[in-house]
């Protein structure tokens, strides 16, 4: 992946009005990881519950996390399985979500006072290792939500790993290590480049971008919403990057395999 190609692609992705609208909806106050929830312990619980939540489910999800926020962490710890099931039932995948909650509660009790001393990578790896149902990408989500949007974590989901980023010229890595490797590669390429011109000319200056020199959260949102709005259609004719001959339209091949 050449830096100049990446910059061109981010420029084109960020110009799309539908992408911009979604970034504006989710940059300063993300619908999945709202800053209105202040308790870091509850943020760790909620970040894990945000997995497999689509836009179609977002209103249901927001009701669930609003309910969770009415309790203190200590009160959540005292809940029995039946009460936890009642809370997460609207989200589906009930057994796995309850398992995650109980395991994360134990993780918080054991490690919370120590995690400030860990780097992002150390915390992500520890969550993935110790919490049942928490993969590396769940660890990324938990760490980002706990430490703030501009803490330097760039979550890479399955669609980014398997379709979008390889199509853009990043390495295709089939196994679960791909999330970590691609996240690291994204961090490096963002750190090396200056996005201020793109931010200004494409209309993102009004956002609360905490680190304009290293806008990790903004670039993550531009990529994730371009993926959801274009890559997920699995039709290269809809892709602005394909029209500019910057990508080869691998999403069509993915569609054929399915």
Please provide a written account of the structure.
- There is one protein chain.
- With 258 residues, the chain is an all-alpha fold.
- It has 15 helices and no strands.
- It has helices at residues 3-15, 17-26, 40-49, 58-68, 73-77, 81-88, 94-111, 120-130, 136-147, 158-168, 177-192, 196-201, 216-229, 240-243, 250-257.
- Helix 2 crosses helix 13 (216-229) and helix 8 (120-130) crosses helix 9.
- The longest helix is centred in the middle third of the chain and has 18 residues, at 94-111.
- The chain is globular.
Write the layout of secondary structure elements.
Elements: H1 3-15, H2 17-26, H3 40-49, H4 58-68, H5 73-77, H6 81-88, H7 94-111, H8 120-130, H9 136-147, H10 158-168, H11 177-192, H12 196-201, H13 216-229, H14 240-243, H15 250-257
Helix pairs in contact: 2-13, 3-7, 3-9, 6-7, 8-9
Radius of gyration: 19 Å
Hey, roughly how much beta strand do the residues contain?
A: under 5%
Fraction of residues in H or I helices: 55-70%
Query: Number of DSSP strands?
Result: 0
Number of helices: 15
Shape: globular
User: How would you classify the helix and strand content by structural class?
Assistant: mainly alpha
Largest sheet: none
What is the distance, rounded to the nearest whole angstrom, between the alpha carbons of the first and last residues? Answer: 27 Å
Stretches where pLDDT is under 50 for at least 5 consecutive residues are none
Order of helices and strands: HHHHHHHHHHHHHHH
Average pLDDT taken over every residue: 94
């Amino acid at each position: 992946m050449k830096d100049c190609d990446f910059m061109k692609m981010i420029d084109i992705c960020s110009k799309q009005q539908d992408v911009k609208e979604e970034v504006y909806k989710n940059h300063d106050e993300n619908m999945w990881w709202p800053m209105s929830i202040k308790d870091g312990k509850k943020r760790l619980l909620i970040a894990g519950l945000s997995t497999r939540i689509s836009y179609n489910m977002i209103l249901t999800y927001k009701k669930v996390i609003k309910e969770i926020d009415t309790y203190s962490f200590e009160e959540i710890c005292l809940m029995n399985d039946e009460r936890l099931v009642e809370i997460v039932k609207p989200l589906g995948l009930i057994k796995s979500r309850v398992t995650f909650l109980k395991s994360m509660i134990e993780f918080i009790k054991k490690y919370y006072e120590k995690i400030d001393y860990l780097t992002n990578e150390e915390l992500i790896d520890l969550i993935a290792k110790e919490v049942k149902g928490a993969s590396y990408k769940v660890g990324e989500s938990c760490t980002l939500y706990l430490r703030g949007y501009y803490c330097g974590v760039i979550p890479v989901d399955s669609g980014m790993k398997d379709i979008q980023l390889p199509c853009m010229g990043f390495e295709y890595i089939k196994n679960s290590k791909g999330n970590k490797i691609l996240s690291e590669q994204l961090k490096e390429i963002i750190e090396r480049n200056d996005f201020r011109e793109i931010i200004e000319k494409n209309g993102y200056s009004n956002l609360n971008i905490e680190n304009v020199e290293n806008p990790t959260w903004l670039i993550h949102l531009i990529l994730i919403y371009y993926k959801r709005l274009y890559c997920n259609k699995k039709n290269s004719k809809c892709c602005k990057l394909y029209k500019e001959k910057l990508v080869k339209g691998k999403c069509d091949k993915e569609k054929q395999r399915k």
